[in-house]
Structure formats: structure tokens, C-alpha cells
Amino acid sequence: MKAITIDQKKCVGCRNCEMACAYEKSQETCEVMFSNIRVSDYVGRGFVVPMTCFHCTEAWCMKMCPAHAITRDPETNAVIINPNRCAGCKMCILSCPYGNIHFDHVHMVSHKCDLCGGKPRCVTHCISGALRYEEVGSDGLRYRKDVLPEETRG
Amino acid sequence: MQERKTYHSICRMCGSGCGVDVEVENNRIVKVSGNEENDINRGRICIKGSSAATWLNLPERLRKPLKKTANGFVEIPLEQAMDEIAAKMKELQDTYGKQAVAGWKGEGTGFNQNEQLMRRFNRAIGSPNYFSNNTQCNNSRYEAFYLNYGCWPQADFRHTKLAIFWGTNSPAAHSFWTQDLNEGRDRGARSIVIDTKYNEQAHIADLFVIVRPGSDAVLAYGIIHRMIERGVVNQEYVDTFTLGYDKLKVYAERFTGEYVEKITGVKPEVIETIVDMIQAAGRQVCSWPGTGVEHQANGVSNSRVCSLVDALVGAIDVSGGMLINENMKTNSLVLGDDVPVEGEPIGKSVYPVVDYFKKESHTLMLMDTILTGKYEGRDYPFKGLIMTAADPVMTEANTAKTIQALSSLELFVVKDLFLTKTAELADYVIPAACNYARDELYFNGMEQSVYLAEKVVEEPLQTEYEFLKGLADRLGAGQYFPWKNEREVIEYMIEPSGFTYEDLQKYPSGLRTVLVHYHKPEERLAKGEKPFPTPTGKIEICSTVLEQFGYPGIPTIDHLPDCILQKDEEYPYICMTGARKIPYFHGRYRNIPQILKAHPHAEAEMHEADAEDLGLKEGDMIRVTSRVGSIEIPVHIMKHDTIARSAVQITHGWENANANYLTDDSDRDPISGFPNLKTFGIRIEKL
């Protein structure tokens, strides 16, 4: 199973991911409100992290959606909102524990990451290497050895 | 449905040269992505790179040659434009001398190959001059590195233990360095960012040090002073491979902790931490001077001294340090001294070191020469300028003077993709084929790889080679442009390497020309050869080239900005221009609609305490006035001490708030002639 993983300590807050996602989805603008990935930059604390949908195994948004607009793509495992079915009730936004679903105030529907059909544009625009689209184990964690310095690996 | 084909090429949205996959449908570029097989950027590109698919297809792209008439621009056939331009060039050269006309190479459509072609063209028509924006950006560091090492070393961030970034923000300027450094960090590398402003680079730094504008080199000397006192210098290396260390040692003594803190605002304990980090890194240190340090009154010296931090621990040509790169043998397109020219190059007598290393004329002095008809008091008519894909109205210091000078030429030709502010001043505007409509040979120094920046679409537009060859043919200099097209140019260039054009096509993600290996200076010394390509064969801490031209040999900090020493009551704030923003590259890309929507205007970035003193809130409009000019611009307030106090940063490239209306073309570095773009006094009024 492939997923977008985030190595927070590599992120420089360049926002190429946000701009690329916004444009990929809107074909009109790079403005952040159209993006499914959002960079939170806590400048005073020196902490920055991009956040995008984890496509949870137990997706609360999917369970909550009264319009049955949210389904899982069997090929990519992505949890996807069908904008034609979405009623704009925002229940999914309330149910997401991570704040990774956003609202489109023009079309009055929710929007979130759909993994770009298996070629996520945010990852290919992540110039720092913080975002990866990679195989992950069933627990969703990258193998520990990948993130530890060479000399400490067993 | 049209068939979609994907080609590998090299991105030209900035100068970094990332490998890209260009998807083409019906001879139209529809998508640009990173090329996963390319070792430079490994499948990742920035928003500029992928936005080429929009930019190059904009309806505003120039398609027809334009001629300026009393009623504005009118479209004319290309052949007529070429004939008229050539005839005017000939008339001007016959009337005023060969020096009266020259070409200026811009960066909009290609890399080094276009530079070589323009240099060739200028000499072929008998001009002593060659112009480009490099006399205002990049050359200062070129000279600094060549003075120190006799070459420009490459930073090996992937294997380093400590990277020090001086006034540079690689996520915006060289995006793949960010990935390189993060790979290094996976192996335990640390990094220090020294800047006047918290930037993207600083987000992953172990130590971020804020300095006052124009004081970087004072901090570098403070570090070197403590390295010497604490014995962190690699003495054996310094004794064997460097020249002038004793002089540096004496000069560095004045940079005491107390003095450095007074000038830079950096406390002595921070310097101790930096020296601790250098000591822990052994010889695997990259101390990289960025553009921020070269645009100052001591630009060359600043770059030299920042770069010496790694040389003093012996980090030159070692893995994780600064690679002395090797290249395959190629034929240069630049013509030799056997082809005669008339007149003296503009700038050579004033900045001889620029001529010594770069053979490049000075664009700021060109503006004065155009306007006065004199160069250094001597008659010097300069009447015709042929410019390819450059936009000095946005990028040259002192915009008002630049516009006045370019408007007063008898012949001004601009070849570009769009009708830029500079092109609006031209007598003739020739539409340019974009980089994806021509082949170019591209070389990456760190990978020591060669690439074919491949043509992927047919555009019914002229390439720079066709343009220059067309003019040369008409001017009787056609023998210097014997090649039918750029493929033949490339075949000529790579002929001595043993590689062929077909090899380049076969390996579109790069061909390693020479395998990287280190410790070459040690090997050369053992063989009795000169270890470094400087006149003495050593790293010239004390430069024999500078001494030959009457400058001090060691990097000296002689011109600290007045505003650092004492607050100027009339212009109490220090303006810095030129910090790059991720989605833009100098004057370009404000016409990409999706990017402009996200980043719609210029900003004057300032410290929140300064904004409070001035009664300013986020977005308030202010008038910024320097000794040269004035602009109106909204304020962006930087919180959490992320910019030096009294400093104001304004990124250039905005038509309605052009920072170069403020910059002074006459305040220059004595060695390179670079304008001081980073420390000039301004006053601020709330509107």
C-alpha cells in the first residue's frame, strides 16, 4: 500500500506543494484555499509541517458523510469525495481529527486529497524531500532505520 | 484524442537546471514534471518549473516581429526586420566605429551556450564588448572563487558534516540543494544559516544567526579569528596548500568579539558555537557565500572571506567539502584574440579583475557611456544594442537611468518571449523561440554530467543561434557561424570529448563525463604539478592577481556601510533588495496568472518593532525614498525577530513597485564594480 509520508524535520516551508496542489485541482490558481495540502509554519517556534489526508484505514469522514459522497478508491486506497454527491454539510470537516478536509466556498462542497490518481503532485513538487509517496507497512509507519542517522542503525 | 509524448529535457525557468519530463500533445507542451531518472533533482521540481506549461503557452507570447513607428509598434516580416537591423548596425559601425554596437545576453531562453554564442557574435562583428547581467549578479563570486582557488568549487551538501549558508536561500535559488542537504542531514550533517532575514533555508538549520545588513564578512572574520585562536585551523593543510595565511592572521586580529558584536549584532558566545560546529565537522565543511554577500560595497572580499572558512580546515576537494570539479574537453565557441576588435571594453580600465577572469564589459558603466558619449572622459560613442531575453528595466540598478539610456540609443533590438518593460523601449522586437524549441548542451558541475537540454516542440520562431547567425551573415561575418543549426553547434562543441550527439540523445537523463574523485591537489603536488589553477598553484588567501592590479591581496573590509556605523537621520532605514521568492525568478513570471493570484504584489518586509515605531499595520501603503528615487509599496510585518532591526527587504521584479528605482548604480564594489543592492539608506512615509 502506498501513502504520502511526511518527514517533518526536512520541511523548509517553501509551499511548492500547496501551490502545485491548488493548481492541479483548480487549473486556475495556486492560492492556498484551493489546496488539499496545507503548510503550517509556526515561525516563532521554528516548526513547520505540511499536512494532508492520511486516508485513514478507519475513515471517520467516510462513516459520517450523510450523502454517501465519500468512498475509497480500490486502486490507490485514496479516500475520495465525489463533489457531485457532496451536499456541503461539512460533517466530514468536523469529523476529521487532523483538519485535513477543507471547504470550497465557490462550489459549496468539501475537498480533500485524492492522491492525484496515484501520482501526487505535491510530492513531485516537494523540493526538500520531506514528502514521499512510498510503500508503507500495515501500521503506516516508515521503517525506523530510514529516519535514523547512519551510525546509529543496527 | 491526440497522442501524448513525454520527453526528457532541462528546465530553464531559473538557472539551476533541473531535469524535467515534458509532456507534449499536438506540438503543445501540456505538462512539465520532474524527471525521476535525473540525478540532479531526482523527480522533484518547483512551481516555476511546472508552470512553464502555462507560461510558454500564454496568448501574450510574441509571435510576430515588431517595429516601432510614430504610431507605436507595427508587425513586420522577420526577413525585413533582420535586413533593417543589420543595415542599421552597419551604418552605426561605419559612422561611429566598431565599438558603437554590441550584444547583451539574457537568460530567458538558454544557458551557457547562448552566452558563448553572444560572445562569439560580438567579436565577429569587431566589438570589444560583451554584456550580460552577470556584471551585476554572479561575477563577483566568480571572481572571488577564482582569486582564492583558480576555479569555482562545488559544495558537496550530500556528504557534508556542516553547511554554512551566507546570504543565500537555496529553496528559492537552487531548489535541489535542499534535497541534497537533507540527504546529508540523514547522514548527520548540520547547517548554519547566516542572514539578515529568516528564510526557507533557515527552517532546517541547526543554528540561524541574524546579522545586520552589510556585516556578514565581519562575522566571517570574527569566526576565522576565533578558529585561529582556538587552533581549529588545519595547520598542515594551510602550510602546504595556501599562500598568505600569516597576513590573514594579522588582519583577523582586529575582529575581536567585542568589535564583531558591535558591527554585526552577533554575540561572542554564538561565534564560539559556530567554531565548535566547525571543529566537530573535521574537513567536511561547505561554507557557501550567496548572492546576498556579493551585492555589497565589499562584495568580492565578502565572498572570499566567507569561502575561506572551509579552506582553513582543508575542506577543499574532499568528499563533503568543496569539490574542484572536472569537465570533459569541449570546443569553446568564444573567438580568440586573433579576431580583431576596435576600441576598449567598457569597464576594463576601471575593473581590470573582471576583465582578467571574465572578459565582460560593465553594464552599469554602459548606461553612463550611452548617455554621455564618453567612457572615463574619453569619447566613446555607443549607439546600438542587441539584447536577447534580458529585462534590465526590472533588474538593473537605477531604473530611471536605465530607461533614459536605453531610450536614447539609435538602435535598440530586443529578442524575447514577451513584450517586457525593456522590450517596450526597443526599436525592433523579435519573438524568441523558447528553450524547449531548441537544443542546448548543459553541464552540471557537482554531478560532472552532461545533458542535452532537448528540443521537444517545433515553434515557428527564431532561436538565438538563427538570429545571431542571420545578423552575422548580413554583416559579412558569416564565416564565424558555419553551422546550419544548433545540433551542428553542439556536435562541434562536444567533438573533443569523444561523445556524440547520439550519445546525448541516448542518455537524456545525463551522461557522467568524468567520474568524481577527490584529493586531486594532493595528487598533483606529489607529481610535482601545481595543486591549484592559481598563478602560484596555491589557494591564494593573499591574491597575487589582486596585488598585480594594485589591490590589497587579502580580503579587506574597507567600506562598511555608513548606516552600520552611525544612524543616518535623513535615511534612517537600511534597504536590501533581491531576496528571491519561491514562485518568481528576478523580473519574470508575474504574467503567470495562477502564480500572480497567489502572490499578487510586492512587499516591503520589516521588523514588527520598526513597523510599530512608524505606526504601520500589515498591508499599509508606504512611500520608500532613497537618494536615487522613490516607490510606493505595501508593508509586510516580520514577527518573532525574523529580520534585522532597521532593515527593510524589497524583492525586485515588480513593475508597479520596482525596487531598482531605489538602487544606486554608482555605489560599487571596487573590484567587481557590483552595485550595492543590500545596504542603502531609505526613509519611509506612511501614505
Folded structure, characterized:
The complex is a heterodimer of chains A (154) and B (687). By secondary structure, chain A is of the alpha+beta class. Chain A has a domain at 2-52 and 113-152: Alpha-Beta Plaits (2-Layer Sandwich), CATH 3.30.70. Helices cover 19% and strands 21% of the residues of chain A. Chain A is built from five helices and eight strands, in the order βαββαββαββαβα. Chain A starts with a strand and ends in a 7-residue tail after the last helix. Chain B has 687 residues and is an alpha/beta fold. In chain B, strands 5-4-19-18-17-6-7 form a seven-stranded mixed β-sheet, with helices on one face. Chains A and B meet through helix 1 of A and helix 7 and helix 25 of B.
Arrangement of strands in the largest sheet of chain B:
5-4-19-18-17-6-7
* Widest beta sheet: strand line-up of chain A: 1-8
E-strand count of chain B: 29
Terminal Cα span of chain A: 26 Å
Shape of chain A: globular
Oligomeric status: heterodimer
Question: Tally the helices of chain A: what do you get?
Answer: 5
Question: What portion of residues of chain A is helical?
Answer: 10-25%
How many alpha or pi helices of chain B? 26
Largest sheet of chain A: 2 strands, antiparallel
The name of the CATH architecture of the largest domain in chain B is 3-Layer(aba) Sandwich
Topology (elements, then pairings):
The complex is a heterodimer of chains A (154) and B (687).
Chain A: E1 2-6, H1 16-26, E2 38-42, E3 47-51, H2 60-64, E4 70-72, E5 79-81, H3 91-95, E6 102-104, E7 109-111, H4 121-124, E8 131-135, H5 144-147
Antiparallel strand pairs in A: 1-8, 2-3, 4-5, 6-7
Chain B: E1 4-10, E2 19-25, E3 28-34, H1 47-50, H2 52-55, E4 66-69, E5 72-75, H3 78-96, E6 101-105, H4 112-124, E7 131-132, H5 139-149, E8 154-155, E9 162-166, H6 170-173, H7 176-186, E10 190-195, E11 207-210, H8 216-229, H9 235-241, E12 242-243, H10 245-252, H11 257-264, H12 268-280, E13 285-289, H13 291-294, H14 299-311, E14 322-323, H15 352-358, H16 363-372, E15 374-375, E16 378-379, E17 384-388, H17 392-395, H18 399-407, E18 411-416, E19 428-431, E20 440-444, E21 449-453, H19 464-474, H20 486-494, H21 501-506, E22 511-512, H22 520-526, E23 539-540, H23 544-548, H24 562-565, E24 573-577, H25 593-598, E25 604-607, H26 608-613, E26 621-625, E27 630-638, E28 647-650, E29 680-686
Parallel strand pairs in B: 6-7, 6-17, 9-10, 9-13, 10-11, 12-23, 17-18, 18-19, 24-28, 25-27
Antiparallel strand pairs in B: 1-2, 2-3, 4-5, 4-19, 8-14, 15-16, 20-21, 21-22, 24-29, 25-28, 26-27, 26-29
